[in-house]
Amino acid sequence: MRYLPLTPADRQDMLKRIGVSSIDALFTDVPKAAELDGPVDLPPHQTELQVERALAKMASENTAASSVPFFVGAGAYKHHVPATVDHLIQRSEFLTAYTPYQPEISQGTLQTLFEFQTQVALMTGMDVANASMYDGSTACAEAVLMAARVTKRKKAVLAGSLHPHYAETTRTSAKYLNIDIASSSPDLDGLSGIADAIDDETACVVIQTPDVFGRLHDLTEISEKAHAHGALVIAVFAEPVSLGLVKSPGEMGADIAVGEGQGIGVGLNFGGPYVGLFACKNDRNFIRNLPGRLAGETVDADGRRGYVLTLSTREQHIRRDKATSNICTNSGLCALAFTIHMTLLGEKGLTTLAQLNHETACDLADRLDGVDGAELLTDTFFNEFALRLSKPAADVVDALVDKGILGGVPASRLYPGAGLDDVLIVAATETNTEDDLAAFEIALREVLS
Amino acid sequence: MSMNTQGRPTRIEHDVDPGGYEETLSGSRGLDQAEALLFERGSLDVTGVDLPTPKGGKNRLGGMKREGQIGLPGLAEPETMRHYVRLSRKNYAIDLGLYPLGSCTMKHNPRLNEKVARMPGFADIHPLQPEKTVQGAYKLIEELAHWLMVLTNTPAVAMSPKAGAHGEFCGMMAIRAALDARGETGRRRVLVPESAHGTNPATAVQCGFFTDEIPADETGRVDMEAFKAKLGDDVAGIMLTNPNTCGLFERDIREIADLIHEAGGYFYCDGANFNAIMGRVRPGDLGIDAMHINLHKTFSTPHGGGGPGSGPTVFSKALAPFAPLPFIVKTADGAQLKMAENTSDIDGLDAKPFGRLTAFHGQMGMFTRALTYMMSHGSDGLKQASEDAVLNANYILARLKDVMTPAFEGTCMHEALFDDRFLKDTGVTTLDFAKAMIDEGYHPMTMYFPLVVHGAMLIEPTETESKSGLDRFCDVLLGLSEAAIAGEGGRFKAAPVHAPMRRLDETRAARSPVLRWTPPADDPQVAE
Amino acid sequence: MSVKYTKDHEWVKLDGDTVTVGITAYAAEQLGDVVFVELPDVGKTFDQGDEMAVVESVKAASEVYAPVSGEVVAVNGALEGEPQKVNESADADGWFVQLKLTDKSQLDDLMDEAAYAAHIS
């Protein structure tokens, strides 16, 4: 068996050295009732070739995004990841290293995390960022829990246009922590009602921009109102490339900025693994209540600069039942992919990339708005917008598949029974060519006629 | 003859004294390259990607355009490659050597996993694509779920948790939901052995429970008398790791399960140590109600410097109805697989999900890798793997126990636990010992965990270590132990001296946290 | 006024009807370098044995318990910027909290210096 180096002779020698006659002697604590007669009822071992073939067959039953005109977003975005990124994250020393608990032999991981934290802080316009969460939705949930701890209040207000998966994840995380979560119905227009919901009991208000329908929101006014009541503003984003063109959460007065980093470096991966970004103000109380790992700068015994995991007493392995979160793992390799891609992009690359995304989306919006039976609902957006269609969006998307187009996400998939069955959420990125846009326009026209 | 007129010397001098020369001009030492921060190397007007020129003009940002500099330096591709390659060389890794971290299961990460995960049909699909275009992905998730259920003998599994701790949350939330469904609002006490991993109590608290610690007996297992005394009708359940964090199989586990169930509670099992028993023992046969599985431990998905992980959680019949959304169901005609994502998708099913754990469906990238690993091993290979894991740990225990001090009598499972009694009066601590291992070219074992043993050293070799590799490792540990006992404390106190860095000042990092790079005040690149 | 000790390594110094509370040098030694001290708000009241403060080193967080019942009248703000005072001067400059006693007799439950010295050996 190719992954098991021990030979039968080795095993015999080792059993002898241990002083037992068979491997069974090392399993005597297993209750008799749980002993099995033989291997479990699963196929026996297979060669690389056999396994590869079996899995390739499963893979072939899926339509890869690159193989068709592709416009699916709503929380995960198709961007081009340079070849360098994937090559570097497969280096043994990055791929097969563990959490950097022994910093002397983990400076590769620690320094790249420190760079990641800095990049995330800069992009979000905040002061400090952690070493990543699992994804945007759990980062959002943890932000609400953190706001409750920091303000010592028990009410959170979620905007109706927050991605429903993020809202549901937040509700589930807070379910038994006596935090009252209020959210308005999905709102295509703006943030109506949210300002009125803020009072002196509110711990935080959570607003996604660009929101799940792609709409941009200026948080400046809401931030002023929230702060006047002592509530925190949590800004959420699902498309990190937007930060290259749109006002940052920090500029708009956010206290905590969380979001999904997948769009940079990570790839679609059918929903995971992704990388949660979490940033906040440089306030001592905030930092002590941050969830997740933190890489910090220090010096070694020779006075040379180095990095370590720090402020660990917040975390579960030390604080146990009083930890800020139960989280142990971060999204290490995905955070590294993000950092490498950001390094290749740099300021110029990110801002150019963001501009290209916006322009492509504007072109597409014009084209599709011009199709009879389709009406553009989002007038300000980054690279994603909503259309109202003359037929149920789910049916339209299905019909578009038959025409070879993956044409967006029907809002009804995210908001069933909310009266949004005719709404389609469409994303466009730098990976969409002029031909893609034309093909979508033609196909949509055919489907809606 | 013709003469060599180049003048290049060919003889080496054997007695040249390096004379205390330690510092280099560059800060690099041979292949270990000094590497500054990206922010000190890159610049704002450099980019390592080529992009088309934007057309400019059109703007639908509604006045929300970002003005001013972000402050993100870039590097061209060659410099990017060097920056990260140089940094990578400062990391220890499984591919480099034995990584004996207890309860982390640092087994070899097969490269076939990486190849399969990158097949476009897996890597390049979106979770919200029309479901008829991702049937192969759903089939893979179902296949992996099947393997996990057969290996554990359970009827249901939640695939969405993104890591082990997330899986613990999944399991404990299901328990809480089940208690709520029974109207049992008085049950909030969760029993947890004092040797438990910190995620256990942290998770329990997040589900609205509080924890009550059970002491260990002198064999390192749950003290049954103490456990029985703690039962009551306010008990929600127990969180037990098996094999436990001392590397020992809880031999009373069936009695524990029965007693907890009789008392009206549920049995959560922390599956971090599943590598000791997979393919040979099925936790479902031991009476568990919920168990998370760490795909990044037991099933070889790469550790990646700290993540990502994946924590699918299996459920007993009692807890299955409470499994979170989303999960895969068959369409009415049985022809297609569908993802039940919203409560409206589960009408007519016996499902009362406690909620949703995360956006989308789970860690597909880890599913492909784990299934590749499982299919490669098969049921016979997985059984052999767990037996070899246990054999390797016991071999280490046998070779070391006469010099180092095992924490408990008898054999172990897949990991061997020592305490620091053998270092008594040497002045060498567990920490010093670990740092000396670094100089010998090994990543230290888990230190100071579990907390129940003083100066704990928990060694888990896994099944992917060869006998000769184990022998070399044991030779080194014996040598270090003997050196410490012989009074050579100096080398331990100074260690490590051969690693890219010496010991780092963690106190300073915590007292005055510097969590990011900040441009110096006089940096010309910073906009006013 | 002689100093009293709890079995959980807090020291207590009486002055009129207030006591000053800190952790012992032994406890500080065991903890390692102190990086943060979480002190209660002035005005808060505690019963004997309640968790009153938390002291953190790099690798551990320990609860500090109220040795006697009382109301917090002062906390050592200097510890915020200089937590190392706990290591450097646990018995003096590293004090944590001053409590106004509600029941002086509770001091009789505590150990004197000799008893504490025996306790930690």
What does this molecule look like?
The complex is a heterotrimer of chains A (449), B (528) and C (121). Chain A contains 14 helices and 13 strands. Chain A is α/β, with parallel strands linked by helices. In chain A, the strands form 3 sheets. A 7-stranded mixed β-sheet of chain A has the order 1-7-6-5-4-2-3, with helices on both faces. A 4-stranded antiparallel β-sheet of chain A has the order 10-11-13-12. In chain A, strands 8-9 form a two-stranded antiparallel sheet. The longest helix of chain A has 38 residues. Chain B is of the alpha/beta class and 528 residues long. Helices cover 31% and strands 9% of the residues of chain B. Chain B has 14 helices and 13 strands. In chain B, strands 1-7-6-5-4-2-3 form a 7-stranded mixed β-sheet, with helices on both faces. Chain B is globular and about 95 Å long. Chain C is an alpha+beta fold. In chain C, 19% of the residues lie in helices and 37% in strands. Chain C contains 4 helices and 9 strands. In chain C, the strands form 2 sheets. Chain C has a 6-stranded antiparallel β-sheet with strand order 1-2-3-9-8-5. Chain C has a 3-stranded antiparallel β-sheet with strand order 4-6-7. In chain C, a hairpin with a 4-residue loop joins strand 1 and strand 2. The two termini of chain C are 24 Å apart. The model of chain C has no long low-confidence stretch (mean pLDDT 92). Classes of the chains: A alpha/beta (449), B alpha/beta (528), C alpha+beta (121). Chains A and B meet through helix 1, helix 2, helix 3, helix 4 and helix 5 of A and helix 2, helix 3, helix 4, helix 5 and helix 6 of B.
